[in-house]
Design brief:
7 strands, about 250 residues, single chain, Rossmann fold, globular, about 15% strand, alpha/beta
C-alpha cells in the first residue's frame, strides 16, 4: 500500500516516535491527521507538514469520542496507534488511578478508535492499522509489570484483529521497539540509565512504521537482534528466564 496520497491518522504525534512518524509519512507524500495531548507541541509538529490537528487526552472517554468523530470525518486509510504512557515501579505499589490511566491510553483508546474507524476500511477493502507496542509486551520487564501487560494486551488485540480481517483488504502491523531515545522515561518518572542496549533514534522506528504499511509487514521488532530473546521466551521460557536473571 503506497503512502503517497493516502490519508493517515497518527496518535501521540506531538513528540518522540509520533513526531518522527509524522515527518516520515509526510516525506512519503501522505496527508496527515495528527493528534496529541499537548496543543502547543502538536502545532509545532503539524505546522511544517501542513497537517490537520486535534488535541485530545486519550484517557478521557469524552475526548476519545471527540477524536473518533473528528478522525472519521477525515476518512483516514491508515491509522497509526502510537500514543502511549509508561509506568514503572514494583507491581504491588502501582496506584489504582495510575493503572486505570495507563490502560485507558495504551489499550482502551486504540481499541475504541479502531472500532470507530474500521467499518469504512472494511467497506472499501483497503486500509492499514499500525499498533506501536513495545518489546516489554513480548518479554516482560521487572518493575514494569503493568506497562508490559498493557502492551501485551495491545499486541494480542492486533494479532486477533489481523486474523479477523484476513481477506478484508485491511492490513494490521505491530511494531515492538526496544529502547528509543525520547522523553518517555523522564515522563514516567524513571530515567533510563543502563549502558546497554543503547537507545535508538525515533526516526528508525518511524521508518519501520512507514515500511510496514507499504510492504504489508505484520510484526516488526527493533532492533532486529531482539527477535532472538523474543523467540527464546516464546519457545523455551524456562531457559529465557534463567538467562534473563543471569544477565539482568
Amino acid at each position: 500500500m503506497r503512502l503517497s496520497g493516502t490519508t493517515v491518522l497518527v496518535t501521540g504525534a506531538s513528540s518522540g516516535i509520533g513526531r518522527a512518524t509524522a515527518e516520515e509519512l509526510a516525506r512519503r507524500g501522505a496527508r496527515l491527521l495528527l493528534t496529541g495531548r499537548d496543543p502547543a507541541r502538536l502545532a509545532e509538529t503539524a505546522r511544517p507538514l501542513g497537517a490537520e490537528t486535534l488535541a485530545a487526552d486519550l484517557a478521557d472517554p469524552s475526548s476519545r469520542g471527540e477524536l473518533a468523530a473528528w478522525a472519521a470525518a477525515g476518512d483516514p486509510e491508515v491509522v497509526v496507534h502510537n500514543a502511549g504512557l509508561g509506568l514503572a515501579g514494583p507491581a504491588d505499589q502501582v496506584a489504582a488511578e495510575d493503572l486505570a490511566r495507563l490502560f485507558a491510553v495504551n489499550v482502551l483508546a486504540p481499541i475504541a478508535l479502531t472500532q470507530s474507524l474500521l467499518p469504512p476500511l472494511r467497506a472499501r477493502r483497503r486500509g492499514h492499522l499500525v499498533f506501536v507496542g513495545s518489546i516489554a509486551g513480548l518479554l516482560g520487564v521487572p518493575e514494569e509489570a503493568c506497562y508490559a501487560a498493557s502492551k501485551a494486551a495491545l499486541h494480542r488485540y492486533a494479532d486477533s484483529l489481523r486474523a479477523e480481517l484476513a481477506g478484508d483488504g485491511v492490513g494490521v502491523s505491530t511494531i515492538a521497539p526496544g529502547i528509543v531515545d525520547t522523553a518517555f522515561f523522564e515522563r514516567r518518572g524513571t530515567p533510563y540509565t543502563r549502558r546497554f542496549p543503547r537507545p535508538m533514534p525515533p526516526h528508525r522506528v518511524a521508518v519501520a512504521i512507514a515500511d510496514a504499511v507499504e510492504h504489508g509487514r505484520t510484526e516488526v521488532v527493533l532492533p532486529r537482534w531482539l527477535r532472538l530473546p523474543a523467540w527464546l521466551q516464546a519457545t523455551a521460557p524456562g531457559a529465557y528466564h534463567a538467562l534473563a536473571r543471569r544477565f539482568s
